[in-house]
Design a protein that fits this description.
The complex is a heterotrimer of chains A (about 150), B (about 400) and C (about 120). Chain A is an all-alpha fold and about 150 residues long. Chain A has helices at about 1-25, 30-55, 60-85, 95-115, 120-149; strands spanning about 30, 85-90. Chain A has a two-stranded parallel ribbon. Chain B is built from 17 helices and no strands. Chain B has one domain: Amino acid/polyamine transporter I (Up-down Bundle), CATH 1.20.1740. In chain B, α2 (about 20-35) crosses α11, α2 crosses α15 (about 335-360) and α6 (about 135-145) packs antiparallel against α12 (about 255-300). Chain B is an all-alpha fold and about 400 residues long. By secondary structure, chain C is an alpha+beta fold. Chain C has a single domain (about 1-115), classed as SH3 type barrels, CATH 2.30.30.240. In chain C, the strands form 2 sheets. Chain C has a 4-stranded mixed β-sheet with strand order 2-1-7-6, with no helix packed on it. In chain C, strands 3-4-5 form a 3-stranded antiparallel β-sheet, with helices on one face. In chain C, a hairpin with a 3-residue loop joins β6 and β7. The chains are: A mainly alpha (about 150), B mainly alpha (about 400), C alpha+beta (about 120). Chains in contact: A-B, B-C. The interface of B and C includes residues 65, 72, 309 and 312 of B.
Chain lengths: ~150, ~400, ~120
């Protein structure tokens, strides 16, 4: 009887520690993953500039621009959540926070484009701000890789 | 004179119908990631489908046997069933991806919910199939797909370094698993088996005889050859615009961006319109291919020309496949992701459906004087070897690169 | 030797498409009945009930559950060899499908086909 009990407690303890291990493990954000995430943000910003420039020049269809802005904005938000939820590798916390901020900025800019997909003035503003956001993302990448060496 | 005109129209329809969502996705991604380096793989795949289609068309015309008749006869019931199951799964995924693709393009054009457009697309396809004669369906979608020549115009408008582009036609391998994944993907997207299965059944639907063999050859070589130019153009425009910017094309709408950049709203509308027609045609071809394969394997009456009363099980199965495609497209999985899997799995299943056709095409007892000559034999077996290598490498590469996610 | 000649005929005949006298497709040769010594082909066998015979053992059991037992006249049909008219790209029969009890799968009178929207 007591042998059974001990077995059960031992099993529960093992299960709990495995769970804890797993929980802490999958929350980790390695430097490589952070780098990848920032690269994605840069790519999104680049693509966004192409869409926004179309709006700015009145050289696109507003439905296309709106749906693209919605899709790309959704990807930026998803990236922001992913980066914010995870625990960054030691020494990269600042970069991770900066990345989350940039992701939020990009998502916000896409939201604006979604609201004004036919407005040339907004289009050119969004294009300019996305370029700035992209530069910020590239600066984060530079810092991450500078620290690597 | 009239005959030449008719053949020319058929070739034109084949050109416009060459691309589907797999090509749109993989060619654009290949350009963005590797610029012009994968052009050789596009050409390799294009020649591959020309070879496969010509052989299957010839076998169907001369021996009266469409692909899954050949497969059941040559592989027997057991292995044939494996080929059927594999083929059906791939075709189902393809139908879902194409339906999703139609819905995405409609959403980009009209900004109404994607899920509504999936249903609308299926209903429109049923109506088109019900109202138009068989040949008319191919021409309807084929001519519409010609709008994608705006991609070729964009490539010239961009004025890339043509020397760099030319270098991309020289085969090169890399140890990068992402590069190899895209070699497989670009090739497989060009050589989608459903297209060939549809083509072979179509030859029998149209009642082709030996007089049509020349037309068959022209359709395959000229039609698919020029269609390959569209694929090449997609890689080039994407490579020119997206590669230096580091853009990652994960959405179907991104495919049209270079055309918007070059020609503004007109370019965008031509690109989206062309995409709509080629993906729509592919949805019909892949859903029909699934029904053709099932009916032919089991010995049912089949054929669009028979109509729903004479071939009820065939027709019902077509509707069921459409329904299942709708279900998958509505499930919330991004059609671009479904496409990755449908293309990769199709090359894994390809050896099983290619080999029996190759064997019969070379067999004089079936083909008499139209059996494979020395050139066709060498080409046919060379491609079988290539297909087997890619089939073996496909799934490991899919896993290693996380479906091209890197 | 006649033995191998017969085997070749059976091999080529198996899995062929069967058409009736009017060209209607009525199934495939799912199995062949051989009788006598030396063996002669006495009938072609058609139907889902015969599929389990064609599959390896473990799959056969699953297939048997799906298609049910062999019900002659139902999911298994016998076409006497005399009914075969010609062997070409398909096996052509002398009579129409209804006269031989074939083609029931695509027959409007069968319940599933009757339920289809256009019937």
């Amino acid at each position: 009887m007591s042998g059974d009990k001990r077995f059960r407690t031992g099993a529960i303890a093992l299960l709990l520690s495995l769970l804890l291990l797993a929980a802490s493990g999958c929350g980790d954000l390695s430097k490589d993953e952070l780098n990848r995430g920032v690269e994605s943000l840069s790519a999104l910003a680049a693509q966004g500039q192409l869409v926004a420039s179309g709006v700015a020049r009145d050289a696109t269809k507003s439905t296309y621009a709106r749906v693209m802005a919605k899709t790309l904005g959704g990807e930026a938000e998803h990236e922001a959540e992913k980066l914010a939820d995870a625990t960054p590798e030691a020494g990269t916390e600042e970069e991770r926070d900066a990345a989350v901020a940039v992701a939020g900025e990009i998502a916000g800019l896409f939201s604006e484009l979604q609201t004004f997909p036919g407005d040339e003035h907004h289009g050119s503003l969004v294009q300019k701000h996305l370029e700035e956001a992209q530069e910020k993302a590239e600066a984060i990448t530079a810092r991450l890789n500078g620290e690597k060496s | 004179m009239k005959a030449i005109f008719k053949i020319a129209l058929g070739i034109i329809a084949a050109i416009g119908g060459f691309l589907d969502i797999g090509d749109l996705v993989f060619d654009t991604q290949a350009g963005a990631l590797f610029r012009y380096d994968l052009l050789w793989a596009v050409v390799l795949g294009t020649i591959g489908i020309a070879v496969y289609a010509e052989m299957t068309g010839r076998v169907a015309t001369v021996s009266g046997r469409p692909v899954f008749d050949v497969i059941r006869m040559r592989l027997g019931f057991g292995m044939g069933l494996v080929a059927l199951v594999a083929s059906t799964i791939v075709n189902l995924l393809t139908v879902a991806a194409e339906l999703g693709g139609i819905a995405i393009v409609l959403e980009l054009l009209f900004d109404a919910p994607y899920s509504m457009f999936v249903f609308a697309a299926a209903i429109a396809l049923i109506a088109i199939v019900a109202l138009l004669p068989f040949g008319g369906i191919e021409r309807f979608f084929g001519y519409g797909g010609l709008a994608l020549f705006v991609v070729v115009a964009t490539a010239f408008h961009q004025e890339p370094n043509w020397g760099d582009v030319a270098a991309g036609f020289v085969p090169s391998l890399s140890s990068s698993s992402l590069y190899l994944y895209f070699v497989v993907g670009v090739f497989a997207a060009a050589l989608m088996p459903y297209e060939v299965h549809f083509y072979s059944s179509g030859a029998i639907e149209e009642g082709w005889t030996e007089q049509n063999l020349k037309e068959n050859r022209l359709n395959a070589i000229v039609g698919y050859g020029i269609g390959g130019v569209l694929s090449v153009a997609l890689v080039v425009v994407s490579g020119y615009l997206f590669h230096p910017l580091g853009v990652e094309p994960n959405d179907l709408g991104t495919v049209a961006l270079p055309m918007q950049g070059a020609f503004g709203e007109t370019g965008l509308l031509l690109a989206l319109g062309g995409m709509l027609f080629c993906v729509g045609g592919a949805a019909i071809d892949s859903s029909f291919a699934a029904s053709y394969n099932l009916a032919q394997f089991l010995g049912w009456e089949w054929g669009r020309y028979q109509g729903p009363r004479k071939a009820p099980r065939f027709t019902a199965s077509w509707l069921v496949f459409l329904l299942l495609g709708i279900a998958i497209a509505e499930s919330g999985i991004n059609p671009v992701e479904i496409t990755e899997y449908s293309v990769v799995f199709s090359v894994v299943a390809l050896p099983l459906t290619y080999l029996p056709v190759l064997l019969i095409a070379g067999d004089r007892s079936f083909m008499s004087e139209h059996a494979n000559g020395p050139f066709a034999t060498v080409l046919g077996w060379l491609y079988f070897a290539i297909i087997v290598v890619l089939a073996v490498a496909a799934i490991p590469l899919l896993l290693a690169t996380n479906a091209g996610g890197g | 030797m006649t033995g191998s000649g017969d085997i070749y005929v059976v091999h080529r005949l198996l899995d062929e498409q069967i058409c009736d006298s009017e060209g209607k497709r009525v199934g495939r040769v799912d199995d062949i009945e051989l009788r006598g010594d030396p063996p002669r082909i006495t009938a072609l066998l058609v139907g889902e009930g015969l599929y389990p015979r064609r599959l390896p053992r473990h799959l056969a059991r699953l297939a048997r559950r799906v298609s049910g037992p062999e019900r002659w006249g139902g999911n298994a049909l016998r076409i006497p060899w005399e009914e075969v008219d010609e062997l070409a790209a398909t096996v052509k029969l002398r009579k129409k499908a209804e006269d031989l009890g074939l083609g029931m799968g695509d027959d409007p009178k069968r319940w599933i086909v009757r339920r289809l929207p256009w019937n």
